[in-house]
Amino acid sequence: MDLLPPPLEGVTVVAVEQAVSAPFATRQLADLGARVIKVERVDGGDFARGYDTAAEGLASHFVWCNRGKESIALDLKDPRGLDVVRRLIADADVFVQNLAHGAAARLGLDAATLCAADPRLIAVDISGYGGSGPYADKRAYDMLVQCEAGLVSVTGTPERPVKAGIPAADIAAAMYAFSGVLAALVRRGTTGRGGPVEVSMLEALAEWMGHPLHHTMHGGEPPARTGLAHAVIVPYDSYATADGGRVLLSVQNDREWRRLAELVLEKPELAHDPAYATNAARVAGRERTDALVAGALGTMTADEALTRLEAAGIACARIRDLAELAEHPQLAARERWRRVGSPVGPLRALLPPITLPGGTETRLGDVPALGRHTDALLRAVGMTDDEITALRRDGVAA
Question: Which residues are known to be catalytic?
């Protein structure tokens, strides 16, 4: 049987993008086979290129979010640079931007303007708080939006709220932009019309707050910050092991508690003790229940604890650091790692989590140097060598 082609093969995306939200969205499109043309500033490009040098001299955010793209560097404040972008968009299926509020509209690159001129185009505006309302002009960095969306109110310890350790607001917006593009492509396939797609970081992350938000809105108390513990299930927490590791376990019902008591704690009398036999009792006596579990696991190595818990049918996990994640046996067994090219040589990269059996393997393109494809793209929109030389001389292209 012939392998199916990448699902977005033949789709061209132009992106005036920076940081994480738009670049991560368009990287998903590139992974599925789309051609993604990344428009960057001439003076340093996407500012995420300068966040750090951890990836063999490249910025880790940039490596993560920008593989498989073509980079063209243009000054959009110069009419000639803006004209190049318009020519690129004229041949594109999708346009994505996450400029500061109002900047795209001043350039005529907002979704409403572009889609009015070309009904087949799908144009995506990604913003912090949306295009209207009292927060429209407010700066919106990931951690700020985590605060506004209430994420930090449910994350951390009773004493102190903390932000998520990943850019959750950026990622949420990116994934809704990605799915919005896919939905718009399906609609265009049936109607012939593309149209605007609007995504805000606040609205995306507010959606992800669904459980604690609905719990609070509809009469419950706001969930307490409990670190790695669960607010309403006990035992559901991490526990230290004898070798310095930590293991998280979750007892979801009273049957599991009986198995834990008999097979792991080796205290079968606790299986039916009224002080422990129900989750309500264990929550009421959280400290003594946790102390029992901690005492038992503290005599075992992490491997021994996990083996005992698995044998008892108790959900459990090893608390891994990032170096351990990079060597995770499940990712290795499923052959999820590949190498992608970059200006500093091959770099490890994960296959995207969308697997499409029966198709060609996901194409993981190179991480581009700034302006790596500028000349080729300028020629593709009809510019002569003399015109290209003039753009470079005047600092309009790089």
Answer: 170
